[in-house]
């Protein structure tokens, strides 16, 4: 015997409610895992900052933390004068030269993990470069010409 239209509608609504409940559970689990991962990255970042402050100097003066959207951190140090002069002497630096300049200022994580962050969040490179400039003494005002 075929179901009535009302019964078919009720079946479909029941199936949708079940899918919605499953989706909600999966979403909650993904959020919990993301929160756990972010906390884990936060702990790693905190330890790396402490180590870098002890070795190099204070945050905001000698080092800085750039955080990716997922919480992974990149700690950079102020650029060295000789490296900066050599880099600035290049009229049109290649991507490889820019990457070498940037990675020369990275304190944490290692280059492989940094590349993983950049693979997932490509524009982190721009933020890291800006922070390196600021640590090197270029203020926002000086860079924008205002």
What does this structure look like?
- The chain is built from 6 helices and 3 strands.
- The longest helix has 51 residues, at 5-55.
- The chain has a 3-stranded antiparallel beta sheet, sandwiched between helices.
- β1 (63-67) and β2 form a beta hairpin.
- The protein has helices at 5-55, 81-88, 95-103, 111-120, 124-135, 140-144, and strands at 63-67, 73-77, 106-108.
- The chain has one domain (5-144): rbstp2171 (2-Layer Sandwich).
- Helices cover 65% and strands 9% of the residues.
- With 146 residues, it is mainly alpha-helical.
Describe the SSE topology.
Blueprint: H1 5-55, E1 63-67, E2 73-77, H2 81-88, H3 95-103, E3 106-108, H4 111-120, H5 124-135, H6 140-144
Antiparallel strand pairs: 1-2, 2-3
